[in-house]
């Protein structure tokens, strides 16, 4: 699935268990169309018993979320928005907010 989202983008979850939460993209898995986002879609993982945790432990870590459940956060609109891509006069490819035309990647 094609997505304009990339690592370090701030996004809002619009679906799944993390509805309405905001976070930064840690990784985009383009082949799967999914992303890992800081603090979003946390899953509990049981770790194996170790010297540090003799009983084992439960840690929370980010689970992947489908990119269709994420919107890029627009600071001008102060909410998640759909983005488009265009080329500037200088030939640079940038993304913009479809609502207010705020330009990202500048
Ligand atoms: Zn905007």
Characterise the protein shown here.
Helices cover 0% and strands 46% of the residues. With 106 residues, the protein is mainly β. The protein has a domain at 10-80: SH3 type barrels. The strands form three sheets. Strands 6-3-2-1-7-8 form a six-stranded antiparallel sheet, with no helix packed on it. It has a two-stranded antiparallel sheet with strand order 4-5. A two-stranded antiparallel sheet has the order 9-10. The structure holds zinc ion.
By CATH reckoning, the class of the domain at 10-80 would read Mainly Beta
Which structural class is indicated by helix and strand composition?
mainly beta
Estimate the helix proportion, in percent. under 10%
Proportion in β-strands: over 45%
Distance, first to last CA: 25 Å
In terms of per-residue confidence, which ranges show pLDDT below 50 for 5 or more consecutive residues? none
Radius of gyration: 17 Å
**Dominant shape:** elongated
| pLDDT averaged over residues | 93
Classify the oligomer: single chain
Strand order of the largest sheet: 6-3-2-1-7-8
H and E string: EEEEEEEEEE
**Which compounds are bound in this model?**
zinc ion
CATH architecture of the domain at 10-80: Roll
Q: How many strand segments?
A: 10
Count every helix, treating DSSP H or I runs of 4 or more residues as helices. 0
Q: Within the CATH hierarchy, at the fold level, what is the topology of the domain at 10-80?
A: SH3 type barrels
Major sheet: size, sense and barrel closure? 6 strands, antiparallel
């Amino acid at each position: 699935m094609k997505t304009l989202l990339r690592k370090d983008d701030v996004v809002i979850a619009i679906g799944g268990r993390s509805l309405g939460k905001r976070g930064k993209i840690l990784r985009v898995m383009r082949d799967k169309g999914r992303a890992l986002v800081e603090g979003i879609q946390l899953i509990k993982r049981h770790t194996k018993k170790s010297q540090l945790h003799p009983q084992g432990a439960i840690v929370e870590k980010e689970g992947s979320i489908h990119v269709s459940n994420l919107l890029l956060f627009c600071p001008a609109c102060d909410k998640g928005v759909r983005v488009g891509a265009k080329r500037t006069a200088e030939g640079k490819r940038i993304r913009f907010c479809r609502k207010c035309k705020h330009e990202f990647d500048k």
